[in-house]
Amino acid sequence: MRLEGWHLIIIIVLALVLFAAPKLPGMARSLGQSMRIFKSEVREMKKDGNTDAKDDSDAVEGRVVNHPRTAGTESRPAEGTDVPPPNRA
After folding, report:
1. Model-level pTM greater than 0.90?
2. Domain ranges, ordered by start, for the chain
């Protein structure tokens, strides 16, 4: 006797019903809640994508801006070290 795909599915369903029956309602509730969250997030992403496609006026171009105090003659760290510029007080 050869086990085919549908035989394995029946065995898995029977095992779930026999051994995980008390946990099935909680798992189904959790799955339903996850699906609702996923659908709402997809809906929000679609809505945000549509507004972005229509309104490009507030697009931001990424540029590197040097800190005004780094161009001065103050003491600098050695080359090759990444130290952020000091904050103004």
Report:
1. no
2. 23-52
